[in-house]
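Sorry to interrupt, but I need a hand with the structure work. Please put the record directly below this note.
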Amino acid sequence: MQSGYKARICTSKDLCGIWRINKVHLDHNHKTSPSKSRLYRYNRELSAHVKRRLKVNDMAGIPLQKSFNSAVVEVGGYENLSCIKKDCRNYVEKVRCLRLGKGDASALQSYFCKMQAQCSGFYFSIDLDDDLRLKNVFWTDYRSRQAFKEFGDVITFDTTYLTNKYDMSFAPFVGVNHHGQSTLLGCGLVSNEDTETFVWLFRTWLQSMHGQAPHGIVTDQDRAMQNAIQIVFPNTKNRWCLWHILKKLPEKFGYHVDKGSIFSTIHNLVYDCQFVEEFENGWRVMVERFHLYDNEWLAGLYENRERWVPCYLKITFWAGMSTTQRSESMHAFFDGYIHSKTTLKQFVEQYEQALRNKVEKEFQADFKSFSQMEPCASRYEIEKQFQAVYTISKFKEVQEEFTGKMYCNLVSVSEGLSGATYEVREDVIHDEHSKKKSFFVSVERDKCEITCSCHNFEFRGIICRHMIVVLARNDVKSIPERYILRRLRRDVSRAHTRVPVNYDGLISTPGQLKYDKMCQRFATLADLTAEDDAKSDAIID
C-alpha cells in the first residue's frame, strides 16, 4: 500500500469465530503528507551500513546520539535518512542482548565465566542477597593482578564517581605506575556503602591480589569505609583525601565574618608547616583567634589530623598521591565509555574497552622511554645517573629538583660525630609572591644516608633540591642505589606488560604464547619438586 493511503475495512464475525471482510473503502480517510511518509514504521529500515556503524561505535563506547548524528550528516539531512533515532536505539539494545544474553545477573555471570575460561587469571565474585538478587559484584583481569605486584604498594579507593541506573556505585581500586599514570587494579559495583559491603569488597579484592595488602590507601572520610579498612587491612595506613576536606571549607565557614582569613590560615597550616609542633601551635592560635572552640567539624578534623595533614604523613611513601586524584583521573578515563544509564551488561564490556585504551597509553609511554633520552638540565653526574634508568616522566620530575636548586642557598652547617646537618634556604614562589623558607638536611656519612625535613624522597620517591644542594657541596658523584627506586625505572622487565587485555578473541603474539607456555611448564616443575627440599632448593639456587 502506498504511503499516505489507508484502507477502511468493514468486517464481521460469525459464530465459528472466523472474520469475514464485507466491504473495503479505498478512498482517502486522512490528509496526505508525502514528506512525512518516511516516519511510518513500514517505510523505515536500517541499512547494513548503518547497522555496522552502530554496532562498532557502541563497542567503542561512542554514545548513540553521536552515532545517529554522524549518520544524519553522512546522508545530507534527516529527510534523507531511512530511520529514526528510536530505530537505532532498538537495534543497539538488541545487539547488546545478543552479545551478552538476556538478564543482567545471569548475563554478568556468563560473561565472567567466558572470560575466566579464556584466561584462568581472570577473577570475579558476585554477591547475592537471600532472595538471590544481585547485591555486589567485583572483577579484575590477570594483567591488573600482575600489575599489583609492581604498583600495589599505594592505592586510592573512591566511590563518589558514578552511580548507575541500578543505584550501584562504581568502586575502582587505582594505583600509579612507573610513568605516573593511573593503573586500574580491579573494580566493583556495590549496592550499599555500609561497613558490611565494604568488608566484602575489600576481602574479595585482597583475595584476588594474592592476599597481599597495600601499604597505604587514600580514601575520603567515610566512616563505614574506615571501619572496613581496619577490619580487612589492619596494618595499612589510611589517608584521607586532602582535596575532599579543603573543598568543604566554604560550606562549613561560609557564614563566618572572617571566612577569608580562616580559609587562608588553614591552607597555610596544611601546606607550609614542616613539623608537627609547628602545625599544632598554629592550629591552636587559629582556634583562639577566630573563636572556633565549638566547631564540631573542625574539632573532628583535628582529632584525626594524622590521617590528612601532610606533616604527619610525609615520612611515609605515598607514590606522590596526596589526594584521590588517581581515582578522579581514572574516572575521567572511564567517562568516554560509561555513564549513569549504562546497563550492567554494558558496564563490564566497556570496562574491557577502556582498559585496552589505558594499556595502549602505557605501552606508548614504555616505548618512548626506551627509544628516547631526555637531555640533562645540568652537568651533575647524579642527574646523568637518573637519566640512564628512570622513565622519561619520572626523570622530568627529578629534573625539576635539579633546576629548582637555583632557588636554594646553603646558609649554615652543624658538624656532628657521625655526620652533619645543613640549613638550606629556598625562595619559595607561590602566586607571584615569594618567601624564604628553611629546610634542614641531615647526612650520616658512615651509613651513606641523607634526609631532608621536606621528606620529598620519602613521600614521592624523588630526591629534593635541598638534598641536591648538599650533595653538590660534598662533591658526591654517584648517589647510593637506595635513592633510585625500582618502581620508577624504565629498564625493569615487568610481568604485567606480557599479559594481553582483550580475552575475547584476541590472538596472542608469539612472545605472549611463549611466556604462557613457559609459565605452564614452570608450574609443572614446581608441582614435581615442591615436596623435595633438595630438589626445590637446587632449582631456586
The chain has 21 helices and 13 strands. The first strand starts at residue 8 and ends at 13. The longest helix spans residues 344-371.
